[in-house]
From TrEMBL:
<feature type="transmembrane region" description="Helical">
    <location>
        <begin position="132"/>
        <end position="154"/>
    </location>
</feature>
<keyword id="KW-0378">Hydrolase</keyword>
<dbReference type="Pfam" id="PF02673">
    <property type="entry name" value="BacA"/>
</dbReference>
<dbReference type="InterPro" id="IPR003824">
    <property type="entry name" value="UppP"/>
</dbReference>
<keyword id="KW-0472">Membrane</keyword>
<keyword id="KW-0046">Antibiotic resistance</keyword>
<dbReference type="GO" id="GO:0009252">
    <property type="term" value="P:peptidoglycan biosynthetic process"/>
</dbReference>
<keyword id="KW-1003">Cell membrane</keyword>
<keyword id="KW-0812">Transmembrane</keyword>
<comment type="function">
    <text>Catalyzes the dephosphorylation of undecaprenyl diphosphate (UPP). Confers resistance to bacitracin.</text>
</comment>
<dbReference type="GO" id="GO:0050380">
    <property type="term" value="F:undecaprenyl-diphosphatase activity"/>
</dbReference>
<feature type="transmembrane region" description="Helical">
    <location>
        <begin position="42"/>
        <end position="60"/>
    </location>
</feature>
<keyword id="KW-0133">Cell shape</keyword>
<feature type="transmembrane region" description="Helical">
    <location>
        <begin position="270"/>
        <end position="290"/>
    </location>
</feature>
<keyword id="KW-1133">Transmembrane helix</keyword>
<protein>
    <recommendedName>
        <fullName>Undecaprenyl-diphosphatase</fullName>
        <ecNumber>3.6.1.27</ecNumber>
    </recommendedName>
</protein>
<feature type="transmembrane region" description="Helical">
    <location>
        <begin position="210"/>
        <end position="228"/>
    </location>
</feature>
Length: 292
């Protein structure tokens, strides 16, 4: 991969990761047309994932910091409750335990963890299927068309008013399932999860926040798994810096796109993206049959 290809693919990743048009679908299509093999781009994909997480952390840093603090406090409360129960049993006392989930941020933390469970199970179980699907144009083509349908559904869905205190753990689990399914190239992770959030009655701004923050454990988990599959013996230092340039391009582009996504969801303007995904999906399918 040349540095121009790396930066170009990085910009595509940054543009498409946070807009509801499937970054994986775009990368698979471009890598097929550019003739770049999956083995050569594995570490590149990992670095792009890390770049994505850094962008999310930068944009939602206040929420994420509060969630981290509340996670530590919840852990402290769990320890306190265990000690209290042991004390009560030993001393025949009746000291009260602390309520663990008693504010919106603590509930948000637990909801993200609940969402991460089905995502991890589906992502791990389907990793070989996703790898095979990434080697052809037909799967991203079909999934892009499905993604277009999802966006149209999201566009006509009435806006909800749910914030963390109103969201059930069942909702969180089902949104995690949606995120797990979006590992297929062509299904936009952000588009799929935001649509699932809106269909669950989430308030629009919270739907975006939930979609991107819940992506952090999923993306980091996938990146760590991929790190073990990289053949480092074939990696030259110069190639690593070429990949790093692409990851930087993805991060810079993505920072502006994630803010654009906040505006898009607030105004519910998904139709243009749906049409784009439909056209690109048809082009990908046509390209598949032309290459045969």
């Amino acid at each position: 991969m040349s540095i121009l290809q790396s930066i170009f693919l990085g910009i595509v990743q940054g543009l498409t990761e946070f807009l509801p048009v499937s970054s994986s679908g775009h990368l698979v299509i471009l890598q097929n047309f550019l003739g770049i093999g999956n083995d050569d781009t594995l570490l590149f994909d990992v670095l792009l994932h890390f770049g994505t997480v850094i962008v999310i952390i930068c944009v939602f840093r206040k929420d994420i910091l509060r969630m981290l603090l509340e996670s530590l406090r919840m852990l402290a409360d769990v320890v306190y409750n265990i000690q209290t129960r042991l004390h009560n049993r030993r001393e025949q006392d009746a000291k009260r335990c602390r309520k663990i989930v008693h504010n919106n941020y603590r509930r948000f933390v637990v909801q993200v963890l609940v969402s991460a469970i089905p995502t991890a199970v589906i992502g791990y179980a389907a990793r070989d299927l996703v790898s095979i699907a990434s080697q052809t144009l037909i799967v991203p083509g079909v999934c892009l068309i499905l993604n277009a349908g999802l966006l149209l559904v999201a566009d006509v869905t009435e806006a909800g008013h749910r914030i963390p205190k109103d969201v059930s753990y069942t909702n969180a689990f089902m949104i995690g399932v949606a995120q797990g399914l979006s590992t297929l190239p062509g299904l936009s992770r952000s588009g799929t999860t935001i649509a699932a959030c809106l269909l669950s009655g989430f308030e629009k701004k919270f739907a975006v926040k939930y979609s991107f923050i819940m992506a952090i454990p999923a993306i980091l988990g996938a990146a760590v798994l991929e790190l073990f599959r990289v053949d480092y013996s074939r990696l030259a230092i110069s190639q690593f810096f070429i990949y790093l340039a692409g990851a930087a391009a993805a991060g810079i582009t993505g920072y502006f796109c994630i803010r654009k996504m906040l505006v898009i969801v607030r105004r519910k303007r998904f139709k243009g993206f749906a049409v784009y995904c439909l056209i690109l999906g048809i082009v990908a399918i046509a390209g598949y049959y032309i290459q045969r």
